[in-house]
Automatic annotation (TrEMBL):
It catalyses: 4-amino-5-aminomethyl-2-methylpyrimidine + H2O = 4-amino-5-hydroxymethyl-2-methylpyrimidine + NH4(+); thiamine + H2O = 5-(2-hydroxyethyl)-4-methylthiazole + 4-amino-5-hydroxymethyl-2-methylpyrimidine + H(+). One of its GO terms (cellular component) is cytosol. Pathway: Cofactor biosynthesis; thiamine diphosphate biosynthesis. Gene3D superfamilies: Heme oxygenase-like. Belongs to the TenA family. This is Aminopyrimidine aminohydrolase. Catalyzes an amino-pyrimidine hydrolysis reaction at the C5' of the pyrimidine moiety of thiamine compounds, a reaction that is part of a thiamine salvage pathway. Its EC number is 3.5.99.2. Residues 16-218 form the Thiaminase-2/PQQC domain. One of its GO terms (molecular function) is thiaminase activity. Keywords: Hydrolase, Thiamine biosynthesis. PANTHER family: BIFUNCTIONAL TH2 PROTEIN (PTHR43198), SI:CH1073-67J19.1-RELATED (PTHR43198:SF2).
Length: 220
């Protein structure tokens, strides 16, 4: 049976494909992405992750019971105490010192995406917020596996192999599965009007993810 989350992807098939198979992604896989584009992306991604942490804080606030609070708190702790630190370390390997990250002005594409997620969560409920975050959490896992299945993938001597392997890793894939299961449980009880509204949120967030890749290519 097609899962509820799968339906969101099917309803937004064009947007999803444009995000998953964006030129930035393909060049990462082929190892032909200019390093300057990746550095620009990494710096903006630091700003994105800080706002992503705020989105989990909002998820805690939007929780209806203690179990949901605990779940939001776990995600908030993971991003603040582990993932942002890993990103800072990864940036250092790419010759971007931590001090430089704090001074980076946000690109229009970064602002558009993070504002949209936070705004959606602020005005909506916890399901709206999770759907706005789904292209980020679930998309990166799917992109890594998609890349690993492409004939143009270059592993040896590709400076982006570690990045792809991080999102293809069993640990990350388990996180993706648990987010899909969460969404499937939530979406299962909703009627067509509610699903159609969520599909709009999913489509918009997916387009903003594709714009984020484009921002990396354009160095804007
Ligand atoms: C623009 C952008 N979109 C998605 C991710 C991936 N990502 C960011 S936080 C997170 C979940 C981990 O809790 C994941 C997968 C990214 N780095 N940058």
């Amino acid at each position: 049976m097609t899962s509820s989350f799968e339906m969101l992807k099917i309803r937004n098939a064009g947007e999803w494909q444009a995000y998953r198979e964006h030129d930035f992604v393909c060049r990462l896989g082929a190892g032909t992405l200019p390093e300057e584009a990746f550095r620009h992306y990494l710096k903006q991604d630091y700003l994105f992750l800080v706002q992503f942490a705020r989105a989990w804080g909002l998820a805690v606030y939007k929780s209806r019971d203690l179990d949901e609070i605990r779940q939001g708190l776990e995600s908030l702790k993971a991003i603040v105490e582990v993932e942002i630190g890993l990103h800072v370390g990864y940036c250092a390997e790419w010759s971007i010192p931590e001090k430089a990250l704090a001074d980076v002005p946000p690109s229009p594409a970064t602002l558009a995406y993070t504002d949209y997620v936070l705004e959606t969560g602020l005005h909506g409920d916890l399901t709206d917020l999770h759907v706005a975050l789904a292209p980020c959490i679930i998309g990166y896992g799917e992109i890594a596996l998609w890349l690993q299945a492409q004939p143009f993938l270059k592993t040896d001597g590709n400076p982006y192999t570690a990045w792809i392997e991080m999102y293809a890793s069993p640990d990350y894939q388990a996180l993706v599965r648990s987010e899909i299961e969460w969404l499937d449980r939530r979406l299962a009880s909703l009627d067509e009007t509610a699903i159609s509204c969520l599909s709009g949120i999913f489509g918009k967030a997916t387009r903003l993810e594709a714009d984020f890749w484009q921002m990396g290519l354009d160095l804007t």
